Amino acid sequence: MSRRYLTIWFRHLTTDQLAIRKPELKGKPFVLAAAERGRMVVKACSAVASAKGIEPGMVVADTRAILPEVEVLDDNPLRAEKLLRALAEWCLRYTPVVAIDLPDSLILDISGCAHLWGGEPPYLKEIQTRLRSAGYEVRAAIADTVGASWAVSRFGQISPIILLGAHADAILQLPPAALRLEAGILARLQKLGLYRIGSFINMPRTALRRRFGADLLTRLDQALGTAPEQIEPIQPVVPFQERLPSLEPIRTATGIEIALRRLLEALCQRLFREGKGLRKSLFRGYRIDGEVQQIEIGTNQPVRNIEHLFKLFQLKIATIRPGLGIELFVLEAPVVEDLSIQQESLWAASNQKHTAIASLLDRIAGRFGAGAIHRYLPDEHYWPERSIREASSLQEKPAITWPDDQPRPVCLLAKPEPIQVTSPIPDYPPMLFIYKGQIHKIRKADGPERIEREWWIEQGLIRDYYRVEDEQGARYWVFRSGHYENHEPEWFIHGFFA
């Protein structure tokens, strides 16, 4: 598939934004200026000021001589980048690949996206109309290369959409500045009377390199597509992603469910073709007011079963607030794992018990959150807090078996909690203990079981553990930290037996 790029040029980026925020500036000539070498220099100018002959780089005193009524405002050097990032995030509704091109442009890789809007002409019109209605003066162009789209967006005079393979002809009549060259190179080209790219594009490359340097050839090759040019997206690209624009804004739960099902069908077909199943999925709705609504699900094992995934999402659809309507739906799977056809058959047929457990856990996690479910496996440590580790999936197998030489509580506290204890003499179990203000009189006890610290990990006191049962029949795992001979030891509760 041929790559297609869209460059959006904001002619008066920062001043347009200021006029949007301060309507009283609209229609007035004003500039943004900053101190430079002891004088105030224009960094950006409004459309009205630009029409009067004021340009960035001019000294403020000269601008007032040209236009006495011009208003001068302080420039923020970080404003352009911050604003471009916000606009780039807004453009993610049109393509997953959006890059910032400072100081005043965005570059979009729109390969495979325009057909969702009915082709490149309505796609380009939609973006330009939305930005212009928001108050930005923009020019945009689509071409096979970043360089060609950048050039045509600024200097093109005919069609902003360059047909496939026609990018070389499209730049012939454009000035050398369309190649993003440095000022020194442009000055030398002008001095030699080379006012169009077509006047030197076919010159011997050795002569061009000798006279103008390698940068001219690099920029020329990038515009022609013979040299690669990478753009840096503001967000990592998710390989498994499906998009669905709406002809009319969607405001109902039924409409959202229909869009979700269509996206799941398309995504699961791709997963099937590539032998994958998703472990995590995000469903986003882009509202017409610019807000983004998002819900997320996770699974205990790789899944591409449409009905199961739909039910997981369905639990959260009620949290989506469509507002005035959602114009674009996006479904992506940022985390996927291998899932062969044979595995899927086992998942669906012969291993029904395992499948039912996995489905139940997915639904519980969807309703109460992934943090509500934990699965633990034994780990090779003596210290109780380290003797278990959390499993990453339902299929993960333990490296060792659960130890059965000593009883262990069903519920182990993540951190031992202090208790007050009455005990007769050292090495004897307690007669009673107080936990959370409640007195527990001990009826039965067993121990001690001494557990030494793992000295290769950390230093500290030993623990003497006791299994105790109170008068109500509840059983606890308590321990004494340290020896009596050195200090008065502290007591802790660490777990509860069934």
UniProtKB/TrEMBL annotation:
**What family does this belong to?**
Belongs to the DNA polymerase type-Y family.
One GO MF annotation is: transferase activity
Query: Which PANTHER family does the UniProt entry name for this protein?
Result: BLR3025 PROTEIN, BLR3025 PROTEIN-RELATED
The UniProt keywords, alphabetically, are: DNA damage, Transferase
Per UniProt, residues of the UmuC domain are 21-149
Q: Which GO terms describe its biological process?
A: DNA repair
Q: Which SUPFAM superfamilies match?
A: DNA/RNA polymerases
**InterPro entries noted in UniProt:** DNA/RNA_pol_sf, Rev_trsase/Diguanyl_cyclase, SulA_CellDiv_inhibitor, UmuC
Can you tell me where the transmembrane regions are? none
- The protein in question is named Nucleotidyltransferase
Signal peptide segment: none
**What taxonomic classification does the UniProt entry list for its organism?**
Bacteria, Pseudomonadati, Bacteroidota, Sphingobacteriia, Sphingobacteriales
